[in-house]
Each structure stands twice: as structure tokens, then as C-alpha cells.
Amino acid sequence: MRQFNLILLVLMMISSLGLAQSWESIGPESGRIVQVAADPNRPDTIFAVHEGFSEPSHFLIRSLDGGERWDTLGEYNGFALHPSSPETLLATFGIGSFSDGIYKSEDLGESFDPSPFYTFYLASGANYNPDNPRNIFCWGQGLIYTTDGGGTWGRPSFPTIPMMYYGAFADPFAQNHYWGWTDSGLLIHSPDRGETWPAMHTFHEGSAPIDVAVSAIDTSYVYMANWDGISRSHDYGETWEHIRMPAQPSNCIWVSELNPEEIIFGGAYGVYKSADGGDSWELVGDSVEYEVIDMDIIPLGGGGGYRIYIGTARNGVMFIDTSPFSSGPMISGAWPPNGKWVSLDTFDITIKVQDPDGVEVSSIELEVNGTSYTTADPELAFLDTMLVFTGYFEDGETVEVELVSADDALGNPSAVLPYNWSFTIDRTPPTATYVNPIPDDTVGTEPILFKMHVIDGGCGLNLPSYVSHFNSVTVYSSCTSFLFDADTVLIDLAFAGLTLEEGDTIQVNIYIEDSVDIGEPNVLEDEWFFYVARTGIADRELPETNELHISPNPFNAGCRIETSEDFRIYDTSGRLIMENTANEGSADRRSAIWSGIDERGTEVPSGIYLIRTSGGETARVILLR
After folding, report:
1. Whether residues 181 and 81 fall in one domain
2. Residue where a domain terminates, one of 425, 449, 467
3. What's the order of all strands across the beta sheet hosting 78-81?
4. Edge-to-edge, what's the strand order for the sheet holding 229-233?
5. How far is CA 206 from CA 209, 244, 269, in A?
6. Same-domain status, 435 and 420
7. How far apart are the first and last CA of the chain?
8. Strand partners, 510
């Protein structure tokens, strides 16, 4: 009897230490899985990319029942699940054909659009920004990204030679840092949402990035999985330190949204976790026979903890449910997220509070703008795993939230408290001041530079949303006749295609949105008119030849001005900028270079400038800094 009790005690101790946890294989049998992800709201809905050894070699597969059955959705080599629209996903196809690109499905993968969402050579992967699904990345032979849901796409300014990329994403906090990495060991970084790419790091073969992850609460913490293990940086990737690993290689890595030093990686022999940034490691569950290639980690529901899905080299998809890193409740999913702009009239503040032992509801205290609430107050409720605060916030108000306390049913406090975040309310649309022409103004038939000041005192303008109509002429922010500088819209109406005839009535329609993160954008939408005077002066005959030539136009560093006459350069207010700017040594003064400076050698700002010859010929040139 004593021996039996001793064995039982040992088994209980092993179970309590988590050593009895095992990975569960859910198929497909003998499958090499190079990507896996589950719907966080429906953990039994799982997508994966199965790699074979013959052509076609990659297939997108899906299970709706936790792995009991797998359906093949098509010949795709990568996918991305929409973070807030559960039926929507993107899949990539890239074999070096005219069909290469990104394909979209809005019925959970049952069917995909026959034409690519965006054509992209050798496309091999994509992802959505989880906090802003209009921000999408795709990689293959190169890297592309969009911030407007696919309307326009950008590319890194370097490297200029084509390279195969392994992945890319925006940082999970402010989304202002972009990261991308290639199969040749290049890691690139933009600190300003892709406007510039000043940081480039090249790693040797063993330390070349395979996967990269950034902390959600401190984006200076960057981790990189590679063949030699893991490297870490605490300064946005400026310097790197190699971490000693229990096994190599490391193929995938994840960082906790609560603590930048809580990390999990998958690679040879299984999955490991560290609570101290990689200084020490613990095996998650038992070892895995085959190499872990990809991993997806989602918070569990009422029980707390995580579910980890892995794609393996030869054993298909596996999963395990594991406890959080620290004792006490796990805190996650604060909404609205930190730093966001919200336009909703009514909404609830929510945050997940989970623990395998249950949560002691009476221990919860939440502060909103300095006022303390408990679940005894009507404003605060705890529903399943969700803490819900109901209130109303004024336009322009910054809402400061702090979860002060939360214990589990055993009395253990959460180790991540206090948990703070804030967001700002913005329900005010942008405002405009019309400068030239003003509403109901009367103008002549000479070409007009349309000028309008547009400001937004909250989250700022969403400039790509801008569109204006001048009768039948439409101008978008992407048009070459459009310029935005220092809160001012400038449009060369003649360059846009608008001809002013005597007696015309010009109807102007303006549309622009602000850039709120949550809720519908606040919209400036206006309509007004201006008129063209009847002068009674007959139209002058235009010269048969145009002797004033400018190229390139628009320009950045410099433009060449060709004319047989002297000329002057003016800004749109009529101020003289330059006179007789011919190149030295050009005796006939037929060719001159203007580098965007005035007579004192000072750089002039971006804008539209008028070049007028001594014979009266006038042309417009656009300077873009």
C-alpha cells in the first residue's frame, strides 16, 4: 500500500510539472507542413500548406473539425487569414507563370477569385496586419505592401536587384516599423511605414533569418530564428546577440504580447519556451520526432493558456494546450488596442482575463480615466473570460485604462499587472479652407492653380482617399497634377485636363477621409461652384510651335529648360525665383539646368512653378522634394 501511494505521488508530481503533456497529431498522415494557422475564434478551423515531392508540390488544405478531415482547396503555396472577417483569406500562387499572384476567397476557401487580387511574380506568402487588415504584405521575388486594402502597393527602395523574400510584417504595436527578410541573409527595416528603408543587415548563412518576431509592448525587442538557433536585439535590430539554444535549427519564433522576454520557438526536436529572453529554456510537452517547420499560437477560451499548432516535416499538423508563462490570470486582447483612434459613437472596453484555475471575479479592479470600478458597479461586468466596461466618451477625449488587480481562484495575482493602455476618440471630420478659387468666385480663362488648406486635428488625414471633381475632370491624390505640401492641396487644373471657357460654371466636389483605426472614417465632403467671366476678348491664336521644353516634369533633383529666349521662373504667388538661368558655357542660352534653388542658392519648397520666356511663352513645372 505504501509503495502504491509513493507511485501515485510521483505520477501526480510529474503531472503537476507539466511533463506528462504530449503533442497530439491531427494529420494529414506523413505530411510535410510548411505553414499552419488556426482561426483564433474557431480553433477547430485550421489551414495548412502541404508540401509534396512532385509537381505540383504545394497545396492549401483546411480542416473544419480539428483535424478529423482535411480538404484540399487548391494549388497554393502560402495563405493569410483575415484578422476580423472570418470568411476571408488570401492565398499565394507562384511557379513562375503569368498566373502568379495573390488570390482572395470570401467563403472560407471554398472558392477563390479567378483573377489575382494582385499579380506578383513567384508569390510565396502573405499576411495581414492583425490590428489593421488594410495593411497587407506579400513576398516572393521581391516584397510589396499596401495600407489601403490593395488599392496601391509599395516596395522597398532597396535592394534594387530581385531577391526572394522569406517574410515581412508590421510591428504589432504602433505598426510604424516594417520588417522584411530574404533567402540570401538580408534583413531590412523601415521605421516609417515603408517611406524609407535606412536599415539593412546582412547575415552569414548560419545566422540568416528564417523567421522574425517583435514584441507587442516594446518593439525594440526583436528576435530572429535561424539555422544556428536564435539571435536577439534590444535596439530595433541595430545590434544582435546570439542565444545558446537547446537544439538547432530554429524555424519559427513567437513573442508574448504581455512580456517581451517570454518567447517560444519551434525547430529540431520540438518546441521550447523561455521566460527570460532566451537565457534558459524549457521543452513544451514532450519532444517531437520530426522537425517543426511552422507554428501558430492562439489564446484558449475559458480555460486560459495557449493552444500551439505546429507543422512538422513528416508528421503533419500537431497541437498541444499549455499553461501561460506566469502564475495568476493571463491578460490579453485589450480593446480598443493601445494607441488607436476610435470614431465609434458607442462601444465597450474589453480585455481578456483567463486562468486554468478560474478567475476570482471579486478581485478585479479596473480604472478608467482615474475612476476605479469593480464588478459590483453596473459599468463593469465579467462575462466568461471577458472583462467588459460600458461607458460613453467625448469626442477628442484620450481614454486612459488600467487593470489594477485580478487574481485566480487560488488567490494568485496576475504577474503582469498593472496593465495599462490608452486610446483616443475622434468623431470630427477634416476641415478645409479654400484659397484659390474661393466658393462663388469669378475667374478669368487663364490656367488656375487650385489651392486648398486641409487639416485634421485628430488622427490625421488619409491622403490616398482624396478625390476631387471639377465638372467632368477627376483628380486623385495619385495623379501627377496633384501635390500635397504643408497641409495644402495644390492642383494644376490645366495639367489635370480642365479647360476654362468664358461663361463656364465649374462645379467642385471634394472628398477626403481621416485615418481613424477603429470605426468608419470621418469624411470631409463638400460641393461648391466658381465661375469663368465673360471678357469679350477674342481668343488669341496659339503659336504653331512650342519652343519652350522642360524635362523631366515633374522633377526632383533638376530639370532641363530648353528655349531660344531668356526666361524667368516664378512661384504661384508671382514672386521671382530665378532669372536667365542658363548653364555656364551655353553661349546661345538654348539649354539650362534648374536644380530647384532661387537666386540666393536657397532650395525652394515642393510646388508648382511658372517659367515665362521673354517672348511671353509660359509653362508649368512641378518640383517634388
Report:
1. yes
2. 425
3. 78-81, 89-93, 101-105, 118-119
4. 211-214, 222-226, 229-233, 241-243
5. 9, 14, 18
6. no
7. 86
8. 468, 526
Number of structural domains (the chain) is 4
Mean of the pLDDT values across residues 314-326?
A: 82
- Quickly count: other Cβ atoms within 10 Å of residue 32's Cβ: 20
Q: Which segment, 487-501, 567-581, 593-607, is predicted with the most confidence on average?
A: 487-501
DSSP one-letter string for 215-252: -SS-TT-EEEEETTEEEEESSTTSS-EEEP-SSS-EEE
* Alpha-helical regions (H) of 433-503: 493-496
Neighbour count for residue 30 (Cβ, 10 Å): 8
* Averaged pLDDT of the chain: 85
CATH label of the domain that carries residue 417? 2.60.40.1220
Q: For 30-171, where are the E strands, in sequence order?
A: 32-39, 42-51, 58-63, 71-74, 78-81, 89-93, 101-105, 118-119, 125-129, 132-140, 142-146, 165-170
Residue ending a domain, among 532, 557, 580, is 532
Quote the CA–CA distance of 364 and 374 in Å, as a whole number: 6
Q: Which distant-in-sequence residues (6+ apart) come within 8 Å of 273 by Cβ? A: 262, 263, 264, 281, 282, 284, 322, 325
Q: What is the pLDDT of residues 432-448, one digit of tens each?
A: 988 788 888 888 888 88
Measuring CA to CA, which residue among 298, 303, 270 is closest to residue 285?
270
Model pLDDT for residues 35-45, shown as the tens digit of each residue:
999 987 788 89
Grouping H, G, I as helix, E, B as strand and the rest as coil, residue 2 is: helix
Task: Write out the three cell numbers for 250.
Answer: 530554429
Residue 377 makes CB contacts below 8 A (sequence gap 6+) with none
- Measured torsion, CA atoms of residues 215, 299, 170, 273, in degrees rounded to the nearest 10: 40
pTM: 0.58
The confidence score (pLDDT) of residue 55 equals 66
Task: Evaluate whether 196 touches 157 at the Cβ level (below 8 Å).
Answer: yes
Which cell is 485 given? 505640401
- Tell me which residue range forms the domain holding 489: 431-532
Assess whether 528 and 554 both reside in one domain: no
For residue range 275-291, list pLDDT tens digits in order: 889 998 989 988 898 89
Q: Is 324 helix (H, G, I), strand (E, B) or coil?
A: coil
Apex 203 CA angle, 238 and 268, nearest 5: 110
AA identity, residue 464: P
Check if the beta carbon of residue 594 is closer than 8 Å to that of residue 581: yes
Nearest to 296 by CA among 264, 326, 262: 264
Residue 302 confidence (pLDDT) above 50:
no
Q: What confidence tens digit (pLDDT) does each residue in 364-417 have?
A: 999 999 999 999 999 999 998 899 999 999 999 999 999 999 998 888 898 778
| 328: three-class secondary structure by DSSP | coil
Strand pairing of 89-93 and 78-81? antiparallel
Instruction: Read off the C-alpha cell for 370.
Output: 482615474
Q: Cell for 111? A: 472558392
C-alpha cell at 594: 534648374
User: Do both 388 and 445 map to the same domain?
Assistant: no
Going across the sheet that includes 591-594, the strands are 549-551, 559-562, 591-594
> Would you state the pLDDT for residue 482?
93
Coil vs helix vs strand at 205: helix
Q: What's the confidence (pLDDT) of residue 570?
A: 82
Whole-number percent of the chain with pLDDT over 90: 47
Q: How far are the Cα atoms of 438, 513, 516, 525 from residue 430, in angstroms, in the given order?
A: 18, 7, 11, 9
Question: Per-residue pLDDT tens for 97-153?
Answer: 888 999 999 999 999 999 898 999 999 999 998 888 999 999 999 999 998 898 899
